[in-house]
Design a protein that fits this description.
By secondary structure, this protein is of the alpha/beta class. The protein folds into two domains: 9-141, Rossmann fold; 144-235 and 261-407, Dihydrodipicolinate Reductase, domain 2 (2-Layer Sandwich), CATH 3.30.360. Helix content is 31%, strand content 26%. The protein has ten helices and 20 strands. Helix 1 (20-35) crosses helix 9 (363-379), helix 5 packs antiparallel against helix 10 (388-407) and helix 8 (195-211) packs across helix 10 (388-407). The model is unreliable at 1-6 (pLDDT under 50). The chain binds alpha-L-sorbopyranose (SOE). Residues 20, 172, 198-199, 238, 297 line the site of alpha-L-sorbopyranose.
């Protein structure tokens, strides 16, 4: 029997893209059915990428039987049930719309699109497809971090009371070196925006989902610290090599560095900061920053309510800090302050499927949970969450932050 033959109990997945996100999605599709079995078993049967050699290497690495170089033929392949989009943002809309039109379920990496218009078209297409049992979801994987899912559960349960304030930071530092090349994430045409869309999108989605509030107003600023960088020769994930003088495309008009390599212009933000208000009366402060030296992947969220607070940092992802304002004394001794919940118990979200308490999970598990939730929803014929509508909602906030930062209108300059 062919390994790719469709069966009523198999969900055949085609992965579009094979870089950092492609790899972690491929691993998640492989792992999810072993730990979160349902009647529907997913398996990646095709990987698609423009570089056939690299895609074939990837396929061999992850045991994927087919390689394709044209996403259109993948989308129209009758054996494929799910299109998993792991390519830069400028390609999301066209692929997702074609996949939904062809009757495929879609899982799409974040941010949903590079602009509001595209996100609106994607959400509308997903809403119509959903009426026919074809589902779409956007990859806000951090929702699937057990500690954050626990925080969401506690807040939905009323454990924090009335939510009054929130602060989110997503800090990385992989761009600090000025010789780091001009990769696609620094090109507005491919990525839409910089730290804002890449990191800020996660923050916005999490703050809204965990708190149950929607951001309804912002005041923002953004900055590009290094505006010229060497052109990239090759890149993968967050690593890249610069073009050398020998391979450079420099002409007499092109700016070059000391070695003669061509330089290009960074067209996205390196960092963005915004104040926010929510539809339920809370206030928030947020920062997305790729120049925060010392922080590799510090996604932090703190939420304060009338009955208590939660605080989380992805660099300690198995922990949730919790302050209970209702029990600050024991036998008349003041014991106020945050306690550390070690989120590894079977009663915590997702944990029952894994290891005995205390045996901690990591980054890749958030993607395994994402796939498990997606497959469970498809198996139950119900729309998965987060939906493209949720992706659009985040896009509205990203758009507002960009507009506010560009307008600079509420800014009060000292010593003008
Ligand atoms: C790069 O900043 C990146 O890989 C993001 O694109 C991901 O969404 C984030 O999870 C990790 O960092």
């Amino acid at each position: 029997m062919s390994t790719t033959q469709a069966s009523p109990h198999t969900l055949n997945v085609a992965l579009i893209g094979y870089s950092f996100m492609g790899a972690i999605h491929a691993q998640a599709w492989r792992t999810a059915p072993s730990f979160f079995p349902t009647d529907l078993t997913p398996r990646v049967t095709t990987v698609c990428g423009r570089n056939e050699y690299a895609a074939t290497e990837f396929a061999n690495r992850f045991g994927i039987p087919h390689v394709e170089t044209d996403w259109r033929s993948v989308v129209n392949d009758p054996t494929i049930d799910v299109i998993d989009i792991c390519v830069p943002g400028h390609l999301h809309t066209e692929i997702a719309l074609a996949a939904l039109a062809a009757g495929k379920h879609v899982l799409c990496e974040k941010p949903l699109a590079n602009n509001l218009d595209d996100a609106e078209r994607m959400a509308a297409a997903a809403a119509s497809a959903s009426a026919n049992g074809i589902f779409a979801s956007v990859g806000f994987n951090y929702r699937r971090t057990p500690a954050l899912a626990l925080a969401q559960r506690m807040i939905a349960n009323g454990d924090l009371g009335v939510i009054r304030s929130m602060r989110g930071q997503y800090l990385q530092d992989w761009l600090v070196d000025p010789t780091f090349p001009l990769v696609w994430r620094l090109d507005a045409e491919k990525a839409g925006s910089g730290a804002l869309g890449d990191l800020g999108a996660h923050l916005i989605d999490l703050a809204q989902w965990v708190s149950g509030h929607n951001i309804d107003g912002v005041s923002a600023l953004s900055r590009t610290f290094i505006s010229e960088r060497p052109l990239a020769e090759a890149s993968s994930g967050l690593s890249a090599t610069a073009a050398t003088a020998a391979t450079t495309t420099a002409t007499t008009e092109t700016a070059t560095d000391d070695s003669g390599s061509a330089m290009g212009t960074v067209t996205v933000d390196d960092a963005a900061i915004w104040l926010a208000t929510t539809d339920k009366g809370a206030i928030g402060t947020f920062e997305a920053n790729r120049f925060a030296t010392g922080h590799n992947n510090a996604l932090r969220l703190e939420i304060n309510g009338s009955l208590g607070s939660i605080a989380f940092d992805f660099e300690r992802l198995n922990e949730l800090e919790y302050f209970d304002n209702r029990s600050t004394t024991v036998n008349n001794v003041e014991v106020g302050g945050f306690r550390r919940i070690h989120v590894t118990k079977a009663s915590h979200p997702y944990l029952a499927a894994w290891w005995p308490a205390g045996h901690s999970l990591g980054y890749e598990h958030t993607f395994v949970h994402q796939v498990a939730d997606f497959v469970a929803a498809v198996a139950a014929n119900t729309p998965p969450s987060p939906s493209f509508e949720d992706g659009l909602n985040v896009q509205c906030v990203l758009d507002a932050v960009e507009r506010s930062a560009a307008a600079h209108s509420s800014w009060t300059q000292l010593n003008p």
